[in-house]
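Hi again,

Forgot to attach this to my earlier email, sorry! This is the prediction with zinc ion bound. I've pasted everything inline since the attachment limit keeps bouncing my files.
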Amino acid sequence: MTKTPAQNTPATIYLKDYARPEFTIEKLDLEFELTAAMTTVKSTMELHKVDATTQHLVLQGEALELISISMNKNILLPEQYRLTATQLTILAVPETFSLEIIVQIKPQENTQLSGLYRSGATFVTQCEAEGFRRITYFLDRPDVLTHYTTKIIADRHQYPHLLSNGNLVAKGELENQRHWVKWEDPFRKPCYLFALVAGQFELLEDYFITQSGRRILLHIYTEKGYLDQCHCAMQAVKKAMTWDEENYGREYDLDIFMIVAISDFNSGAMENKGLNIFNTKYILAKPDTATDEDYIYIQTVVAHEYFHNWTGNRITCRDWFQLSLKEGLTVFRDQSFTADVTDHGVARIYDVNKLRNRQFPEDAGPLAHPVRPDSYIEISNFYTTTIYEKGAEIIRVIQTLLGKVLFRRGMDLYFTRHDGQAVTIEDFVRAMEDASGMNLTQCRLWYEQAGTPLVKVTADYDAATKRYTLTLEQGCLPTPGQPYKKPMHIPVRTALFDHQGQTLLLDTDDGRPGLEKILQLKEITTTVTFKNVPERPIPSLLRHFSAPIKLQFDYSEEELVLLIKHDTDAFNRWEASQIYAQRLLLELIATYQQKRPLQMPEKFTELLRSLLNDKQLNKQLLSALLTLPSEIYLAEHMAVVDVEAIFAAREFVKLNIATALRAEFFATYQENVTTETGIIFTLANVGKRQLKNVALQYLLLLPDPALRKLGHQQFVTSLPLNMTDTMAALRGLSHLAIPERELALEQFYTRWRHEPLIIDKWFAVQAASLLPDTLPQVERLTHHEAFDIKNPNKVYALIGTFGQQNMLRFHAADGAGYHFLGKFILQLDKLNSNVAARMLKPLTEWRRQDSSRAALMCAQLEIMMRTPGISNDIYELVTKSLA
Ligand SMILES: [Zn+2]
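Structure tokens for the complex follow:
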């Protein structure tokens, strides 16, 4: 694999330079001959010039050995083409011609896991974004759509299953124990959706009857011995198929839908047409091997990839700047699905937490970029939470502005108008406008402007006229390349409460009284007056998080408590609790910085006590209400991050809560123990386990041997039965320097040492430990027999957790955490630049650290810049961070 060395500055690609493809490809026939030493790929395609004046055909290709090229069945001579490390140019081509190219590749040496590679004994592909050029020379861009047939030839015993996109149309036997199959995909597609898998699998079979009565075969392929772990994923496929029919009228279009679970995979999963390829992490689950959180992820990711069949595959992106066209929209669809099959309030809390902890820091840092970026060096760096999660929030904003009925009409129009095309975000927005008659001009700014808008709200009540006025002022800080921001179109869902906690009736836009009003912010300042308001109300603002913004309102403590207890919007109940806790924590952080003694206000613990005693509360919501804002979220609220102060304040509050509410937590723990029959994944059981384990985390903070024994007891009892309880106990113990910790880690490893996916949890829990020797432990674990730098899941579990979730130990004042990560990234970059770039992110966010830490972080980035041969991926992130 040749990567451009950073010393030759890699080229930047701009959206404004987009030009239509110069050729169309009528059809593409692929033939793969797979052997242990070498794979031969023969491609045959029919090409037409779009414009007769075009002279040459330029194809992309990387890490390929060219064997031969024939045009219209004549072998080309070396003077008829030009070959570089990344391009094949066929000179002076006719208007219409056929081209046959034969190349050889070595999948077994492909550690980038892009293109065709080996995962154990299996051949597998990953082509998004630009992996197809590592399989053969091609017009590797998403707006070149064509019909594919794929013939695969391989050893019958080693590779009994030979899979590709579409429908299986022929198969046969060959000499030397070999066999072949031929797949044909009736739908035109871009090459990033091509897939091939060859290996030995176990197969879980099922079927689905579509709304029009078609019978679809459902296949999940997995390594031997894991079939019993595929049922959750199979159920998720069926639920997703039903949901997409009911909510979007979208039916599956091929006769077979296949999923293959693979151990070595850079990302979560890939939506290749008819043949989704998944990281095993998002398929395999049994109560003793997967946590409740894993179960929910599996449902969500399976649904996400399935939903891509319409939002991504049938209608695809014109170019990679439009990535959010498919990803933002599909995340929105998977979020809506998960909310429907779980709980709307709890799902929303989860989504917003993720957005705030990951996307908000990105949007405030050196890598901030619009949801539709204007330029990139390495597209794989743009699979970001901004493109995905903020992109999903924009779709939600559009849905809120249009209302559900018009939004659905817009989706219907988008599907009928653009089926089979490669389109832009602009095409999507226009379909929404045309179907609804609404003007979304200002809404487009959400795609163009980076940064998180801040809305400051003030209120005024006039008792004489009974008028209540809210003044909302919006602004947004500069981001790289965007010093000034225009005001955005922001929908703020609002309700008003009286002092008894009752919702007040409001005059809504359509003239009828209602309980909620959507305030539409378009100017820098917006004033809204509510009439006939009998008393000064308590506003519930930005309900259900109706826009991806930061909102400030100066609530009194009593008002927050009222919203926590009475708001009818579950999300805003949680939000009020977070504002309350965040305010307290920020005050304690300031006190700590002034070296004054910390004091715990009794009111806060009393509030939590009353919540714990409220038996009506949804247990998952209660668990969220009892959980303090994360370190990352608190850091977002500080001009200069003070790692020690954040940690000290948070631990102080947690310990005080645990001490004051010990009896309540203990009772809660006992009330929610699930018996053996309760291990099954149901929402009621999930809620019980979650609440019990939140109680356990608090109890384990107390220096009481009996409670620590309780933690270890839960670990031992649940180890053969239930991973949720096992991991909760292990997580609690992992922060304590006690013999039970070492014992539990050893017991876990002994039980699961032969299950790589489960050992990832063991790596992650150690990397997240708050104990002072965590870094040396992590370093030691990189040499552990179970660690493998070539397996992305291992890297994410150990290195990713340490860098991205262990703020205290990663940001050690002496810079040892930075040094370790910097060195690791350089080592990994040579093998897998995509995963290396994902690990780099915590080092790029140095600007908000104190000057000493910032200097140490920059020193690591500068070492990378001086290292010969770093990948474009790393080069782009480092230069943007240091700019
Ligand atoms: Zn996706």
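Residues 700 and 730 are 11 Å apart (CA to CA). The pocket of zinc ion is lined by residues 304, 308, 327, 330 (CB under 6 Å).

That should be everything now.

G.
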